[in-house]
């Protein structure tokens, strides 16, 4: 049996970070069979995080972001062609060009796309952008280099905040509109998001919170926007940063458990069918996956993180070519980072899986701190601002389910942490940016009601 798994036909749908790393890992794990990678973009796999940072600042161009291959995965690349379905019974992937690919095992790594502006006519105005692809990055960078009078960013999540930060670094006037009470609140909770709001305003951002954009104006070209409080913002560039949509529509008829929050899989990255039965030959990795995590109450997590795509691709690839007893679970702790307005923000664990927070090191005033998140008396996450070195200590606390508030012993606190305060994680429905980690069971402080 083990010998068979190293041979045969493997198809990977999704030619970005997770797809590429899985292809490499399959070869490293000794897979000698035929490997095909399908991608709807015409480009070889490239890195997306620099699109909202270096590319906008003119420090890199969008066509130089190709991901380095750690080894040649010796695959057939079918780029610029979309997958349109999977026939689980016939074990074939259907393609938009009418072709179909047989497989013995399939890896789905179709990731996400930018959520478009809900009104297609307004979204098509010249000067309105989303930021997800190489073309998006190149187009927006060109427009910013032409020195617009003002840029409007809709959505105060990580992407929106990084774009606003780049605009200020370029000396451009920028307005950020966020439906929630503060930027980043969906990812970091109420306390830290207050610091994010202060930093944006200190850097000259015109930050409008608690408002929505009701209409984009323009006649062919974007000229401004109406806000729900009755005000109007005059601007010549608009970036819609309303989060991501998981690329699952092509699986609607497949019988897999695919929905708006991604494709559900077990801890070994094996996809579930719509009836909750695990498949043996279909695997999932990267932003499009939903998987259970034992440290977070076995809730299904959906993560839009670079590190998760890499780690999960390695686990999926290992499990695709190894028999059951040798398969590994994907238990990596979510980690993400962001640089904006001169701050380096790093997070480990799931900040939204919390009921209280303490500042364990540093202070909000000093803009240098480590904030620890807890749920029902144990540590579930930590976020550092300009204190990245402290993160390893807190990672250990999360992995060992250490008691919350954490004991004294962190570097610059001889005494126990400050008073614990509620983490003020908002209901995601009140935000214009989606959470970077979606808990798809329920938020821990919302009791499930049985009707």
From TrEMBL:
SUPFAM superfamilies: FAD/NAD(P)-binding domain (SSF51905), FAD/NAD-linked reductases, dimerisation (C-terminal) domain (SSF55424). Pfam families: Pyr_redox_2, Reductase_C. Keywords: FAD, Flavoprotein, Oxidoreductase. Gene3D superfamilies: 3.30.390.30, FAD/NAD(P)-binding domain. Residues 336-406 form the Reductase C-terminal domain. The keyword DNA-binding does not apply. Its cofactor is FAD. The keyword Flavoprotein applies. GO terms for molecular function: oxidoreductase activity, acting on NAD(P)H. GO terms for cellular component: cytoplasm. Residues 10-313 form the FAD/NAD(P)-binding domain. This is Ferredoxin reductase.
């Amino acid at each position: 049996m083990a010998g068979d798994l190293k041979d045969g036909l493997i198809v990977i749908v999704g030619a970005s970070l997770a797809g590429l790393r899985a292809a490499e890992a399959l070869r490293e794990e000794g897979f000698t069979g035929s490997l095909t990678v399908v991608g709807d973009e015409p480009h070889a796999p490239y890195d997306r995080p620099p699109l909202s940072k270096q590319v906008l600042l003119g420090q890199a161009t969008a066509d130089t972001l190709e991901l380095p291959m750690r080894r040649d995965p010796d695959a057939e690349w079918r780029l610029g062609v979309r997958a349109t379905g999977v026939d689980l019974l016939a074990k074939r992937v259907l393609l938009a060009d009418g072709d179909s690919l047989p497989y013995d095992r399939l890896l789905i790594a179709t990731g996400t796309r930018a959520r478009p502006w809900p009104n297609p006519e307004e979204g098509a105005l010249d000067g309105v952008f989303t930021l997800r692809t190489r073309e998006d990055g190149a187009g927006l960078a060109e427009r910013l280099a032409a020195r617009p009078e003002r840029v409007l960013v809709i959505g105060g999540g990580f992407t929106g905040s990084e774009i606003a930060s780049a605009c200020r670094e370029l000396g451009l006037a920028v307005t950020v509109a966020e439906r929630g009470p503060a930027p980043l609140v969906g990812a970091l909770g109420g306390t830290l998001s207050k610091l994010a709001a202060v930093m944006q305003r200190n850097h000259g951002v015109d930050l409008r919170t608690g408002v929505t954009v009701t209409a984009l104006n323009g006649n062919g070209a974007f000229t401004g926007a109406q806000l729900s409080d009755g005000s109007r913002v005059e601007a010549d560039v608009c970036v819609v940063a309303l989060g991501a949509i998981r690329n699952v529509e092509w699986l609607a008829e497949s019988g897999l458990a695919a929905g708006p929050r991604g494709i559900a899989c077990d801890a070994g990255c094996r996809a579930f069918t719509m009836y909750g039965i695990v498949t043996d030959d279909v695997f999932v990795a990267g932003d499009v996956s939903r998987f259970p995590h034992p440290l977070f109450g076995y809730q299904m997590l959906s993560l839009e993180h670079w590190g998760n795509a890499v780690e999960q691709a390695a686990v999926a690839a290992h499990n695709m070519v190894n028999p059951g007893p040798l398969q590994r679970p994907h238990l990596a702790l979510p980690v993400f980072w962001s640089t904006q307005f001169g701050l380096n923000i790093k997070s480990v664990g799931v900040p939204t899986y919390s009921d209280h927070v303490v500042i364990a090191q540093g202070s909000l005033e000093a803009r240098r701190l480590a904030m620890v998140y807890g749920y029902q008396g144990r540590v579930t996450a930590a976020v550092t601002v300009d204190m990245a070195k402290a993160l390893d200590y807190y990672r250990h606390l999360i992995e060992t389910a250490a008691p919350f508030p954490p004991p004294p012993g962190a570097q610059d606190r001889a005494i126990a942490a400050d008073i614990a305060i509620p983490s003020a994680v908002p209901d995601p429905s009140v935000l214009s940016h989606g959470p970077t980690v979606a808990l798809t069971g329920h938020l821990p402080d919302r009791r499930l009601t049985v009707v």
